[in-house]
């Protein structure tokens, strides 16, 4: 910070927007359609954009490849294979970008770092070939409230005790079941936790019947996750608060209210 409160606010706003642009560009490089399978090729898992399975499917001759009591592990292995494929694909797509240099410039120009004024390599022009910047959020129709009101609402959206407590490392899980209860799928936000298939029931079942049960359990788990996640802050809520904060930073007079 350089001592001029208005200039400091402008630098803080520009820095936050720079981080937002970088994160947006990184997300755009994540492969959207990825499929993985277990080592025996009995189960395949296709990932959705949110990191959860979009589809879990067994091949027609699954019983030649996998024992019924090994289906649980096979689903997990296929999911982990899909995750690795997505990570490797993301890494390959990032090789042609300058995201590391952009991150370094943002870090060097940070107005929040002690002893810096936000004027360094990060204030230099973007090099040729840099990806186009994401447009700044449209604030023309945003009527921000007082800063303390915005901050109070933002804090109210989060359970600070839960964040600080030891349970914060354990994500909330949701389990869905097939219509007959023979297959169960447990998920957390952005991840498959486990899959359970009753081996006695699975023995002799066709791939069509098993795939139907897996689809039912996965859909039920996703629905339960969506219902549970709705208790937290929604994306529109957070987006609105972010735009209010940006509007306040863009108009220092409001910051002084």
How would you describe this protein?
This protein is of the alpha+beta class. The protein has helices at 5-28, 62-65, 71-94, 99-108, 147-156, 160-164, 199-202, 207-229, 235-250, 252-255, and strands at residues 34-37, 43-47, 53-58, 174-177, 183-188, 191-197. Strands 1-2-3 form a three-stranded antiparallel β-sheet. The chain has a three-stranded antiparallel β-sheet with strand order 4-5-6. β5 and β6 (191-197) form a beta hairpin.
Strand content: 5-15%
The total beta strand count reads: 6
Structural class: alpha+beta
Computed Rg? 24 Å
- Report the mean per-residue pLDDT as an integer: 75
Strand adjacency order, main sheet: 1-2-3
Secondary-structure element string: HEEEHHHHHEEEHHHH
Shape: elongated
Q: Which stretches are poorly predicted, pLDDT < 50 over at least 5 residues?
A: 114-129, 160-168
Helicity, as a percent range: 40-55%
**Main sheet summary:** 3 strands, antiparallel
Number of helices: 10
N- and C-termini, Cα separation: 21 Å
Report the oligomer: single chain
What is the topological layout?
Elements: H1 5-28, E1 34-37, E2 43-47, E3 53-58, H2 62-65, H3 71-94, H4 99-108, H5 147-156, H6 160-164, E4 174-177, E5 183-188, E6 191-197, H7 199-202, H8 207-229, H9 235-250, H10 252-255
Antiparallel strand pairs: 1-2, 2-3, 4-5, 5-6
Helix pairs in contact: 1-4, 5-9
Could you write a compact summary of the structure shown?
The protein has 257 residues and is of the alpha+beta class. The chain has helices at residues 5-28, 62-65, 71-94, 99-108, 147-156, 160-164, 199-202, 207-229, 235-250, 252-255; strands at residues 34-37, 43-47, 53-58, 174-177, 183-188, 191-197.
